[in-house]
Each structure stands twice: as structure tokens, then as C-alpha cells.
Amino acid sequence: MIPIRYTRNLFLRGMCVVYLFSFLSFYIQIPGLYGDNGILPARSLLENNKYKSWSAKVHYQPTLLWLAPYLGLDTQYALDVLALLGSFLAFSGFVSQKFCTLPLFAGLWSLYFSLYQVGQVFVAAESFFRDNLLLEAGFLCLLIAPLLPGRRNNTPAYVNHVSFWLVRWLLFRFLFTTGVAKVYNGNWWDLNAFAYHFESMELPSPLSWYAHHLPIWVLRMITIWHIVTLTVLPFLFFVPIRSVRISSYSVQLLLQIFTVLTGNYNFLNLLIVTLLLSLLDDKLFFGKSQFNTGKWTAIFGQIVNLLVHAALIYAVVVVFNLRFSGSQVDAKIDISKDQLSQVVKQSLFVAAYVGLASLTLKIARSVSYAVMDTPGVFSKFIALIRTIFYAALAMLIFISSSVPLSSLHTATNSTISPALRTVHNRLGKLQIVNNYVAPTASSTKGGRLEIILEGADNIDGPWLEYYFLYKPGNVNHSLPFAGPYSPRLDWQMHWAAQSNYKDQPWLLSLVHRMLQGRPEVRSLLDRAHSPFQGKPPKYIRGNLYNYKYTPWSERWQSAWWKREKVGEYFPAFSKDSAALVDYLKARNLLPTPAKDAVNPIWKQVLDSVRYVTSHLEATLLLWSVFTASCAIITTTAKSR
């Protein structure tokens, strides 16, 4: 059994980096999203359970924010404390391996879970599951991290292999579920998804425009690459031959790099890359000399790896009917949707059996190593009990995760017992096992719908546009690279454009705060190009536009987009509009003054930190903190 201690440590520090970016992203947006004058005040959400008993509060809204009054904090300042404390813990774990222990990851998970509880629509399913995936992966870190720092307190290797396998299974579930959901979508089925994807994704990057104008046959090949990488290659994660797994790692890593360059998916891609480390082992980092696995074993593994991927390429050529046509490659799917449904059904059964067999084999090997490699009868007994305990937890999580995986097909979904669903629901409430089936698809033909907010001091105009920082607005502005920052408002505006404004209370709350001129909310928009710098407008309305990329022939011109007005999204509102005020009042979204007194020392410290961070652009702040941590690591390493 090849050790994975170094790989495990690399994974834990990678998780600290993801946590660091996620906590900082959350902290930056707290005043505008969840503050007392924010779009969806967290205090209003907690007040719904204010008069319940302590146990009822924790049951219905499990968050550390309930401790705020006992610490001399109100809800908004408590959110700041949780986010800053989480950032500090993540920073500590990244700069020093000795801090990557179970208590640290328990703190990180508890803090982020507490923030998640008040995230509301901005951490909902449309957020592409980044928060859910982070919490589930963060919980697995509790099983992987050593209890205390130091070599003597390290988790035994035979336990690491079992708990680390769960990371691999989580990665499989996420990729496979995402891939199947995309294949069921019409655009992906006819292999034209990427002809529209780069134009209609939630937050395009500067390179999305260039990717959109690749030849159509290249975009079809990219679509096939995505389908195969997400739905077929994940099964290779469980092949008991390391060369096959390492090849799978390389292909998946390439996909994530491509996704980072051509789209803004926040810290999601970094999280997936971190999870991909579960496919590796220490031999990859320290070379063959330290691990004697046998020459012929390695040769056999390479041969099997070549045969597996050769068979996979042949299957792709047959299934997608790949044919050379001059200087390009033609492709089309040669199976019907009914056949696809049967393939998905059989794949789910195969996934369950392969996963169970792989986990059982991993447990059996870990038990044997625990007994054989541990000296002393009593020590053997303790090692055996410890391994069985971790194996039981792994099996519980594996069986519970079969519920969301089975939901991909009606035939497999009907095989889940009510008792198992109950277990899954209870674990799901704690975000330990999640469902990653996307509710809707973002790749739509004919451009993208965008809500444009306009303000005016007179109902007859002139109407001036508000611009956001990361979503399309001004047709002459390219969009920046946002990752790993998570601009939750910009992201949610994309989904709001596909529904009715009356179904989006947060959007009308945004309008009301803008009409009041709340600086906390204005900070989430492009203040540098705001048409109302001195005072807010008297009226704000929303219009719906259809945006399309400019053609390749206009690549030397200043415009990146062309847009056409679709119609009115919501009518003009003033801050005293009866319809707007009544709508928000019925949903407890009107801003009210804070009632809880804040300790003056807390207030001074937290206001000072907020003042400093508010003067830095969000992505610059994140990368500055990351660079500082890297500098500390480098300096510490040189001083040893």
C-alpha cells in the first residue's frame, strides 16, 4: 500500500486555500448582502426564530450567530467575526502544515456552515453548488486530518486510505452528476452546447469571447471532450491501477484549467482541483526510488492504461460517429434518447456496484494492514477498532450518497427505501451529503438575457444605466477574471433574468436599497461608473435586454456585445412606492435599526478592519492575502 501522507497534507492545505478564498469573498459582501441595510438582512431571518427555545433555534437554524448577544455583538458584526475568524484559521492552515489538524477543520466547517445558514438565495442551488460542495468536502477533512500536530499524532496510513477514498467518491458523484445533467440537456445532446455556452454562461471571462468564435467543429469536439470527461472518465477513479488514475487526474486537471480560462466559476474549479489530489499518492511526488512496487507491476499498469484509453477513444469514435471531412472533424450522436436513458440507468447501477466493491476492497486492505503492521496485541486491537470505526463512517456516507445519485433516473430512484431517504435527509441538512443535480441549464440559444437597472430623477427620464462589476452591462466593456472571488449578486442576476421579478424578493429589496442610496449595497455595483454619485435617483426601473457577442469580423472594434431590448422587466419604483414597500414589508425585508448594543471595543476593531479592506478591489484583496501567505511559506522554508 503506497503511502499518501504527503498527498493528504497537500490536500488539507489546498482545502485551507479554498476556505480562505471563500471566507474572504463572504466577508467582503456581508454589509451589502446580509447587513442591517443589506439586500437580505441576516438579522431579519434570525428574528423569525427569536422567540423559540434555544434547542428549537439550533434545530431550525443551526448557526453560531445565536451566540452574538452573549459576545456583545449584533448580527452584522457577528457575521464579520465569523468570516474573519474563518479567514484566519484557513490562513494559518495554509502557511503551516502543523495547524492542519482536526480542531482547525472542525472550526472552519462550523464557521462556514454558520454563514451558509443565513446565505438564503445567494447560496441556493443556482449558485452552482460551490458552497454545498465545499461544506461536504470540508466535513470529509474531519475524517482525514490528524487529531493533533506532530508525527506521533498522525492518523495511521490504513485509516487515511479509507477516509481519503471518500474524497474520491465525492469527486466522482459531483462530476458524474454534472455530466449526466448536461447530457440530458438539448444543446448538449446535439453537440452544439459550446456554440452558445461561452455567450450564455453565468459570468463570462475575457477569453470567453475568443472561445465563442472558435470553428464550430472545434466547439463540437470540446463538447464531446466535456461529456466524456464528466461521465465516463470518473469511473476510472476506482481502477486499482495507479497509472490509470494518474492519467484520469491529468485529463480532469486540463478540463479545470480550460474552464478557469474561459469562465468565472469562483472558487469551484480550485476546489475540484484540490479534490483531484485524492487520485494521487506519495510516489508521484517522491519518485520511484522510495517505493518499491516492482518493475513488472509498473509495466503492466502502463500497458493496461494504454489499452483502457485506446478502448475509450475507439468508443468515442463509434458513439459520436467521428469522421474526417477535409480539414475538420464531423460528429453526431448515434444513439437515441431512449437508449441514452438506458445507458444512464445501467451506469448508475454500475457506479453503485463499482463504488461498493472499491470501498470494500479498500476497507479490507486497511484492516489487514492495521493488524499486520501494528506491533503488540493491544495495539493491534486498538488499530482494528479504529479502522472499523472509520470504515463504518465511510460506509454510512457511501450508502447515504446513493440517494442523490439514484435521483438521476426514475428507475434507480424508485429503489431507494424510505429509511435510507430519512438518513440522507438528516445528513443533507448538515450538508454532509448533497444533491448536485442542476435545476436549470445555462447554455441557451440566441444570446443571454440581462436585467439592466436604470435610474432617473423624473418619471419621463432621462434614464441612466447602473453597471455591475462582473456581469455584462456596458457593451464596450470586457468582463474581468473574477475567480476565485465569488460575486454572488452578479451571479444571481443571471438567474433572475430567466424568471419573473415578483418571484425574486431580493431583487426588489436591491432596488429599494439603491433608491435609499445605501452605500453598503452600492459597493456591490460599479461605483466608478455610477450615474448617480451624489445622491440616489428618485426612480429605478428594470429593462430586459438580449445580449450577443459581436461577430469575429468586428474584433478590432471597441464593442464586445450587441444588445436588443426585449421589454420591461419591472416598472419604475420610487422608495415610497406603496407597491414596493408593501411587497417588502410582507416579507420582512424593510431595513430596521439594530436593537442590540455592540461592545465598543468590538465595534472599533471590526470597523477598522472593514475600512481597510473596503479600499481594495475584491480580487486584489484575495490575491494579496494569498501572496502574503505564500511569502510566509517561502520565508519559513528558507529559514529551516
How would you characterize the overall build of this protein?
With 640 residues, this protein is α+β, with helices and mostly antiparallel strands. It folds into three domains: 1-153 and 599-639, no CATH class; 156-280 and 302-445, no CATH class; 448-592, no CATH class. It is built from 25 helices and six strands. It has helices at residues 5-33, 42-47, 54-60, 75-95, 102-116, 130-144, 157-184, 186-189, 194-200, 208-212, 216-231, 242-262, 268-275, 282-286, 295-319, 337-372, 377-406, 410-413, 418-429, 488-496, 505-516, 519-522, 578-586, 600-613, 618-639; strands at 323-325, 328-330, 448-456, 464-465, 539-549, 561-573. The strands form two sheets. The chain has a four-stranded antiparallel sheet. A two-stranded antiparallel sheet has the order 1-2. Helix 7 runs parallel beside helix 17 (377-406).
Give a count of the beta strands, DSSP E runs of length 2 or more.
Answer: 6
**Low-pLDDT runs:** none
Strand content range: 5-15%
What percent of residues adopt helix (DSSP H or I)? 55-70%
**Alpha-carbon Rg, integer:** 26 Å
Biggest pleated-sheet summary: 4 strands, antiparallel
For the biggest β-sheet, the strand order reads 4-3-5-6
Number of helices: 25
Average pLDDT rating: 90
Q: What class would the helix/strand composition place it in?
A: alpha+beta
